[in-house]
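Entry 14. Structure prediction run on the chain below.
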Amino acid sequence: MAERSSTGLLMMMLDPSPAIAMTLPAEVREKLAELELELSEGDITQKGYEKKRGKLLAPYIPQIQDTSSASEDEGSLRRQGRIASSSPYQAHPSVEHWFNRVIQGSSTSSSASSTSSHPGGRPHHATNTTSASAATVLADLMAHTQLDNHSAPPDVTGLSERSVHAERPQVASVRGLPRGYTHTSVMETADGTDRGDGEDTDGVPVNSRVSSKIQQLLNTLKRPKRPPLREFFVDDFEELLDVQHPDPNQPKPEGGEMRPLNGEPLGVVTNWPPSLLASLQRWGTTQPKSPCLTALDNAGKPVYTLTYGKLWTRSQKLAYTLLNKLSTRNEPLLRPGDRVALVFPNNDPVMFMVAFYGCLLAELVPVPIEVPLTRKDAGSQQVGFLLGSCGVTLALTTDACQKGLPKAQTGEVVTFKGWPRLLWFVTDGKHVVKPPKDWHPPIRDASNEIAYIEYKTSKEGSTMGITVSHSAMLAHCHALTQACGYTEGEIITNVLDFKRDAGLWHGVLTSVMNRMHVISIPYSLMKVNPLSWIQKVHTYKARVAVVKSRDMHWSLLAQRDQRDISLSSLRMLIVADGANPWSISSCDAFLNVFQARGLRPEVICPCASSSEAMTVAIRRPPEMGVPPPGKAVLSMSGLSYGVIRVDTEEKLSVLTVQDVGQVMPGALVCVIRIEGTPYLCRMDEVGEICVSSSSTGISYYGLPGMTKNVFETIPVTSSGAPISDRPFTRTSLLGFIGPDNLVFVVGKMDGLMLVSGRRHNADDVVATALAVEPMKFVYRGRIAVFSVSVLHDERIVVVAEQRPDASEEDSFQWMSRVLQAIDSIHQVGVYCLALVPANTLPKAPLGGIHISETKQRFLEGALHPCNVLMCPHTCVTNLPKPRQKQPGTEVGPASMIVGNLVAGKRIAQACGRDVSQLEDNDQFLYMQDVLQWRAQATPDHPLFLLLNAKGTVANTASCVQLHKRAERVAVALMERGRLNTGDHVALVYPPGIDLIATFYGCLYAGCVPVTVRPPHPQNLTTTLPTVKMIVEVSKSVCILTTQAIMKLLKSKEAAAAVDIKTWPLILDTDDLPRKRIPQIYKPPTPEMLAYLDFSVSTTGILAGVKMSHAATSALCRSIKLQCELYPSRQIAICLDPYCGLGFALWCLCSVYSGHQSILVPPLELETNPSLWLTAVSQYKVRVTFCSYSVMEMCTKGLGSQTEALRLRNVNLSCVRTCMVVAEERPRTTLTQSFSKIFKDLGLSSRAVSTTFGCRVNVAICLQGTAGPDPTTVYLDMRALRHDRVRLVERGSPHSLPLMESGKILPGVKVIIANTETKGPLGDSHLGEIWVSSPHNATGYYTVYGEEALHADHFSTRLSFGDTQTVWARTGYLGFLRRTELTDASGERHDALYVVGSLDETLELRGMRYHPIDIETSVIRSHKSIAECAVFTWTNLLVVVVELEGSEQEALDLVALVTNVVLEEHYLIVGVVVVVDPGVIPINSRGEKQRMHLRDGFLADQLDPIYVAYNM
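Output returned:
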């Protein structure tokens, strides 16, 4: 840090002879120093100071006139020009700046322009005093010496009122910045350790043609102390993450630029109709008996054949009914051009066809969609958005379908989620009417009006409607007829969905144009009998069949039992998804088997199409005399760089693709770059295929921006010239034009995954996964591959459905083989491979998997996989480089101090009120004397009130009662126990008054009490060993307890957990004889041991500390002063009374201060969560203490019951301070939720605060009743990992809220020290909190008496600076920050922020992580994570999460946990352990015992639901 201390130093180095600065006469220097003092003590205003200082310096500064009259642009240039002639200091541009630093230290504002801090920004204008303008000139010159020393981010910690800071120049003026400037190369404390700007007097940059009055006003306005917002929302990950540099050896395209390719001209035939409806009219009237469409049932029997006559008359009826018989309030419901939804099942093509043509005849626009079966269909909500944006109000459907739709109670069809309100109209015969004789539908020539809208789902899952005009529909039918050589009356079998895509184009539109007969094979029949389509081709002697490769594959599996089938009638087998990577293998395998049954190889015609461009290319039937089909074997690695490299089939890492034939008639096709400007690709480059023709869609309905991008692309040559004046439509197909002008498709934009700069195709990855003996373990057609963005790159996820009979072992073997295959063939790592149970993936309407919905479920944690393999280690390659400590560059403590001084930083130290002035009962140094005095002075004053679960008083104690009970205990110890002074006594009591009485009894007898939490009767195995350990470690010679606990300690159950024979003497104190003690023991010195305080730390270490009599009463005095406790006060305590501050408040404070304590045992809240708050309200308590566990119980248990509590008159407006006793970083979220929930009951938002204590000093901070409210700051989490504090705005990325831990107690001094050098640190620097106070513990009490540990923790000294004071090390990291607030004494308030325990921190990748930060991110990642704890195991990060939900969610968490930790902390999770709620051990203060958990994990005792080892 010292090497970049401050620009002041930098300037000294730049300036050859700083001696000139000292030429100021001594008296001037003296006057300046006086002025400085006046300003610092507030005797003079900033403005007055400036004025006087200007006058003093005026004779010694060169006169430079008129800087402010130059315009802003010329100003800086003109001034630089002028300085050469007028300044005697030419050679020393930084003198003035240095003056300011030397003369002033740096607490006040120097006048250097802020330009020096922001190279490239324009200089702000200085106030128009001579000194300031001179300084501006100097600063301008300095700006140029500063370019390579990037300035730190501007101050965000809010320093003193005076040091107004320069704001960053706005974006517009930052053009000249060096790269990387915005994200400064230092992650400094952002409070200006390397600011080079001095602090400016000038204000906002203004244009100087403004009256001087306004200018002055502007200059006096305070400038914001925080950087402008954009500062925070430019995520500086480039600085941090390892940026993937392209491989220098990657293949690059070398061919020439491709030339656009023309299809053959569209033939003109005389009798072609002017529109599709004209064809329908012609065939309907001239060939009414001709069959149009045959529908089959699920057994494959023909149910109904629709003739052209029937189609014509039924469509007319429907058109007439829609236009004339539907009305609302005497207005027709529909007008021409309105959109209408068509909701027809896939087994009813007849009704669909009638409805489709009925709409066209009525000049309505049909929008065919899938039948929504449930309210939660995959993608159904998106379809609803589409219907809403198209303004659809009416849905047509069949009677059977309408009956099957889910109904509301009124009997109407329910409104599906996200859908508009629809009227449902059934189109069956009885609902439509015959039009009158004189009514004829208008048959117009095909125009550019919208004919129909086809829906399409994008990669992200949103549904768009593609509009197709009448003329495009007609032109497409023409082009298909020509390309496929369709003739009148041909028979065609269609297996595809007739509502959209090729099924609609061939089976509903083109068929009508050519009076063809379509045999429609429903999907449900294919599922029952995959051979049905082949049987129908055979039966009907069909000439053409339209199928997908899936249908060919299915029929292969089923064909063995079929002998007498012939496919010799086929002249064309159209493979609609011929562009898929696996279609070629399906085609080859199908041909292999069926060639023997009459199938000719040349009739297989793959085609490529997209919803936007319709059919793009199709292989022509053999009779057209086209070149032979082609096949390309391409290198996968080349394709991933977008380059075509031919390879040999023997290799594994190749992709074999078949051509999809020639370009459609009348179309112009080109291939363009995928990203950026649509440049034409080179011949050997893969790009997106674009089509310009009259037969493509015209727009996305209602989305003009996307329409322009997709339907109106203008491809350009490398020189930037457009290739044609016609717009092109992007097809979203990736491919190239091969030899013989054949089109090859290698993938789709939707399946494109860009990983580390290389492209991979989802379909190719699926094909690779299928090649790994899939049939045994997973379903062939049910694999989804997609990419998710994690840590600024795409990551590949593979999800497959597992067969029910596959064992876990088999599945894992298959999974690891798939991972290896994908890795070796595609050279890309898979991030996550998940197997889900059969039939649980969201389905697309006609089979196949709904990819975007699957991805959505994966990201939401709703996939419920049964097996997961995550491999983040192999595929996350862009993590920031691990931080390495540079040897030899450690900054020594002395340089650190100097650096801070030069930067104008205070050393971080703070103290509470001074307690040297004594008060009333300070003459009693010993607690036992105080109690005795109170018993005499105010015998009946009530000290304690113990409440039970019902809220009634279970026990009370006044001063004299407590004294008498203590006397009896002392007598018993001496007489029954025969104890000597100084013996240690363990007190094993439930929270109550017995515990307090026996504590004072021990003091009366001169024994040393040790309070121990009693064992839990239901859980002896885990709680009893702790009791035994404390008794042994504390060397207790006697145990005092109740009869019930005494029985428990000696019971059979106890014997199973510990050796009960080795207990020391056990005395029960239930009924002791009433005896007075002859005399109360008086310790010879206050330094003698008063009691031992044992506690289990969060790292699982049992540590006992020694508290002397002096420390005990000093502790009570500090708390008394801070909380203003007097005998007339009442406080409520809901804490465990066994250690730390909880013990002090429960047992010591009331006796010392005389106030009444209302004791609420936290265990009682389990049966009555409102007990504590009710008590606070009932006794109108102003000050109350609780633990985080109590606060959590109230927040969770009473969150929904505030209304009920209000009716019971619970009112919390009396509470001034509610303090959470803790030894950790404040849990801001919990305290805020608590305040919010109970605000309704009058709880002030300012009341809740936290305390801080630790083993060396149980009470360091405590809010108390006076003093400013606790402040909250926001830290940059990434800087924190480097042990730096950088304050940012609330809501910034990576920000962490940190609440001040209460106010420092009277008599306590705190300093922040460097953990390694033990030197003091500056304000807002992160280091270890050291504490010095009269109530520090005097040392650890351990069996082994490790002296070295003791000396280091309890009496350590700074290595530099104040080396006299003896400090205790708390073991916690934190920082001090001087705030703008004033405390009770009128001084500026120093806030202490605790960041976390040093022992708990995780050292990973050279950085320091606090477990709580990772845990907070994890808990946020899924609603079912109830709790989380992290620890490290052999350099792996282990995350344990408690699942509060069904066990099928367990595996969902693995990926989400891995994602969130990568994204927010740049760490790879090694192991994710999912356990049941309550497995993570928590101590009495509500802190997680992470080390116990780690031991349990290593010993395999957690009984986890699932353990995922991320490979």
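The two ends are 39 Å apart (CA to CA).
Filed with the rest of this week's runs.
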